[in-house]
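task queued by scheduler; priority normal; single chain, no ligands, no partner chains; default sampling; output format set to structure tokens
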Amino acid sequence: MTLASMDGLVVLFPAHVARYWARPDIAYLPVTDLEPLPYALVWRSETESEPIRALAGIIRDLGPLPSA
């Protein structure tokens, strides 16, 4: 985010960044000719726990969020 706030620098962020990380020093402009960026929840298998499985279940149940 610090690099994105520098003059003359362009950084591509997924659309949700404008919603959740709004900053007055960064202008978010939509790029309309790119496909949606796929995401996945990942974790190291040795750290799997009940809270992680519960979070994964909630995310699976909610499904994808609609675009802004």
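post-processing summary
- The two ends are 20 Å apart (CA to CA).
- DSSP finds two helices and no strands in the chain.
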